Amino acid sequence: MRPASHVSRPFRFIDGALRNAESELGVKLPAQYVDFLRRYGHGGIGGVTVLGVGLDGSMIFAEETEEYRPDGLPDGLVAMENCDEWLYCIDCSNGKVVSWSPYDSDGVVEAYKDFDSYLLDRLNDAIENM
Length: 130
What we know:
This protein is of the alpha+beta class. The chain has helices at about 15-25, 30-40, 60-70, 115-130, and strands at about 45, 50, 75-80, 85-90, 95-100, 110. Strand 5 (about 95-100) and strand 6 form a beta hairpin. It contains 4 helices and 6 strands, in the order H-H-E-E-H-E-E-E-E-H. The protein starts with 14 loop residues before the first helix and ends with a helix.
């Protein structure tokens, strides 16, 4: 029986495509996030969706990041979760997860010390709210 989640695994994860996405964004993704992309691709549970790699190999995180760059998303941040009013992003310079919003002047706010802490907390919150 499949768990009640929507984690998708890409049919074929191509490291070259990931390197191309990093190059286009001008970043080097932190190892914890790359491990998630390789293992799960994209998905989440209970309303939490971590952006990643689609079943067709599309770099969903890169597309979302590029969509928000014209709105002021700072270079070096990569969108990982769209919460409508703000984004959770990974700061590729230090591996921390931050929140950023185009709608307020708070700027970049540190939210988690690393991707694994973010993932554990967000998924636990989703489970508690089911």
